[in-house]
Design a protein that fits this description.
The chain contains four helices and four strands. With 111 residues, the protein is an alpha+beta fold.
Length: 111
């Protein structure tokens, strides 16, 4: 299994806030060592590794995780808690997961 984290640097040179939060959470939760590679999607450099990966996998949000496993299709995760739950097999807080899904999908609303 090979895991790549793609983080974004905005056009003004400032790191993406959500990317910084996810990176900090990976460190806090003890999962940073599970990440094999960190690619940077620099909006100022359209050919940066992260921008190319975002284009290749048609991802419009950062951060995101790329999971590659031998003999299986590549999987993309754009939600931290889903990634942790499905890939790292850790217990995730369902309420936090729901909040993140809503935050990343403003067209959704509570029922």
């Amino acid at each position: 299994m090979h895991i790549t984290l793609v983080k974004k640097i905005l056009a003004d040179g400032i790191p993406c806030k959500k990317c910084t939060e996810v990176h900090s959470r990976l460190e806090k939760d003890g999962y940073i060592d599970c990440i094999d590679h960190i690619a940077i999607a620099d909006e100022r450099e359209p050919n940066s590794e992260g921008m190319q990966l975002a284009k290749q996998y048609q991802v419009e949000r950062a951060p995101f995780f790329i999971l590659e496993e031998a003999g299986k299709p590549t999987k993309i995760y754009t939600i931290y808690f889903q990634f942790v739950k499905e890939v790292l097999k850790a217990e995730s807080n369902e309420q936090e997961e729901a909040k993140e899904i809503l935050k990343n999908n403003p067209d959704l609303d509570f029922l």
